[in-house]
Design a protein that fits this description.
Blueprint: E1 24-26, H1 34-49, H2 65-75, H3 86-105, E2 141-142, E3 147-148, E4 157-158, H4 166-173, E5 190-191, H5 198-204, H6 207-214, H7 219-227, H8 236-245, H9 260-277, H10 280-283, E6 307-308, E7 317-318, E8 332-334
Parallel strand pairs: 1-8
Antiparallel strand pairs: 2-3, 4-5, 6-7
Helix pairs in contact: 1-3, 3-9, 5-8, 7-8, 8-9
């Protein structure tokens, strides 16, 4: 298992430089102009065409810079889901991705988000996000393999193997070590797949679900409602969004293969940010849980002084640095 704790010192806090005039504003996808949407998808395509910065011997499937982000998510899957690390880790992960789009591909905007309940009516396949136009994030899948066939990313190759859900369940039920399979980073190219699921979004991501999520009184209850399944077809808003994407976006390990992952997790971060803002004094630094998925294998409670890592994507940071979107390395807000 790759441990989350690291020894690197954290960088100087960015909140000293974060002011209203230089704060990035993250907007909902449908509120972007057509030009802004194309600029974003073009930047993602740019990242998919840049060379990988990972060791090719260790990560043979990482054939480009975008795949570096997928490989990193695979590497830490057992320690960044269903635990206390989930929210702060993904907050910085999305920020690192946003920074790569800007610094390496010349993107001028901020990371957009996917406001789930606004897409419940009308069908995902007809929405501005998934309609397959030049101003979308690509189409639904088609054919036997549910390959995305129209719009941005229709020629994009998914590089890594498929991970069956049994890997997670076997680890939990057998009190496993949390070690990822030896074949996790093999190069197994396939078409980029989606299988849009309107029902999953309707059941898990409607306005009532969001109201319930934001009304949770503690961070532990917020996390549980966000991500813990409660029965057939009920995955919580986080899981519901992944199942609604289907295909590659529904694979717990390789879900960042679908570029909409980053809009989805910007919305997860938005939900956490809003929840924190309701009682900022007590919620800004609220934590609950350990440092491994379902506490398997058993791990310590996460503290604000623990260091979290993204491997070669960026420097290690303390949990404390990741709790405020206008402090630590961050300087953004949601519109």
């Amino acid at each position: 298992m790759v441990l989350m704790l690291g020894l690197l010192a954290s960088a100087a806090p960015a909140h000293q430089r974060c002011k209203e005039e230089n704060m990035m504003v993250r907007k909902e996808w449908s509120s972007l102009s057509p030009h802004e949407r194309v600029a974003y998808s073009d930047a993602v395509t740019c990242l998919q065409n840049l060379p990988s910065q990972l060791n090719n011997t260790q990560y043979p499937g990482a054939k480009n810079r975008y795949a570096d982000f997928v490989a990193t998510h695979i590497n830490y899957t057992f320690i960044i889901h269903l635990d206390a690390i989930f929210l702060p880790w993904h907050r910085d992960y999305v920020w690192l991705y946003e920074s790569a789009l800007r610094d390496e591909c010349g993107y001028q905007g901020a990371q957009p988000y996917w406001d789930w309940p606004a897409y419940v009516e009308g069908g995902l396949e007809k929405s501005q996000l998934f309609d397959g136009s030049a101003y979308s994030m690509g189409s639904n899948g088609k054919g036997n393999n549910s390959c995305v066939y129209k719009g941005p990313f229709s020629n994009y190759t998914a590089p890594f193997p498929y991970f069956p859900n049994s890997i997670i369940m076997d680890n939990i039920e057998n009190n496993g070590t949390g070690a990822i399979p030896s074949w996790s980073f093999d190069y197994e190219p396939n078409c980029f797949q989606r299988y849009l699921n309107d029902e999953a979004l309707r059941l898990n991501n409607n306005y009532s679900c969001i109201e319930t999520l934001l009304s949770q009184p503690t961070i532990g209850e917020f996390q549980n409602y966000l991500s813990t399944p409660e029965g057939d077809a009920h995955y919580g808003p986080h899981g519901g969004g992944h199942v609604a994407m289907g295909g590659d976006g529904a694979d717990l390990f390789t879900s960042p293969t679908d570029p909409v992952f980053f809009l989805h997790h910007a919305q997860v971060d938005r939900m956490w940010t809003i929840w924190q803002s309701y009682d900022i004094k007590t919620r800004r630094y609220a934590l609950n849980g350990t440092q491994t998925l379902e506490n398997v294998p058993p791990s310590p409670e996460l503290t604000l002084d623990d260091h979290i890592t993204w491997g070669p994507l960026g420097v290690n940071r303390t949990t404390r640095e990741l709790m405020d979107v206008q402090a630590g390395p961050f300087c953004y807000r949601y519109e």
